[in-house]
Design brief:
The protein is of the alpha+beta class and 164 residues long. The chain folds into two domains: 89 residues; 46 residues, no CATH class. The chain has six helices and six strands; from the N terminus they run E-E-E-E-E-H-E-H-H-H-H-H. Strands 1, 2, 3, 4, 5 and 6 form a six-stranded antiparallel sheet that branches. The longest helix is centred in the last third of the chain and has 36 residues. The N and C termini lie far apart (62 Å).
Length: 164
């Protein structure tokens, strides 16, 4: 069963929701989202990664000629059926894996972002001789530091008479 709005079509079945959208005003992007009846929805890129599809399988298209939309919708549908059939039938374990992938990637992104901020703080502190600032910035991320950062942390601790 499908619902249609300009640029958006939603299909529902087996407790699964598939939304095909087309931005015909700005980006001309044709994309697909998939989820269960209750949120969250997942981008097709996430879906393909979760299903271990080859990296070269497109997750969206930029279509400036609307007459070609059906062709590319068909290609997205073929990829979805070929690589992600368990999700289409509402397989709970497949959706659990998909959700776990998102959580893992979000956690990794947040850790990397926080480490990036810590590195900026450390650089400022190091250049101004603020050894306590170096310690404060790097200690929470000690197991993710480069060799050079671990050395700077050790030097800062030594300068302030502290150990690891």
């Amino acid at each position: 069963m499908g619902e249609r709005f300009p640029g958006l079509t939603t299909y529902r079945g087996n407790g699964v929701v598939v939304t095909v959208s087309y931005d015909f005003n700005r980006s001309y992007e044709l994309s697909l989202d998939l989820g269960q009846e209750s949120p969250p929805m997942f981008s097709f890129d996430e879906v393909l990664r979760s299903c271990n599809a080859p990296a070269e399988v497109p997750s969206s298209y930029q279509i400036t000629d609307e007459s070609k939309l059906l062709k590319f919708i068909g290609e997205l549908a073929t990829s979805l059926r070929s690589y992600c059939s368990k999700l289409l039938v509402g397989d709970t374990q497949a959706f659990r894996c998909l959700n776990n992938l998102r959580v893992t990637q979000c956690n990794t992104f947040n850790r990397e972002r926080e480490l990036g901020y810590a590195r900026q703080e450390m650089k400022q502190a190091w250049s101004s001789g603020d050894y306590q600032g170096v310690i404060d910035a790097l200690t929470p991320h000690e197991y993710s530091l480069t060799k050079a950062e671990r050395i700077k942390l050790a030097i800062s601790r030594k300068k302030l008479g502290r150990t690891g």
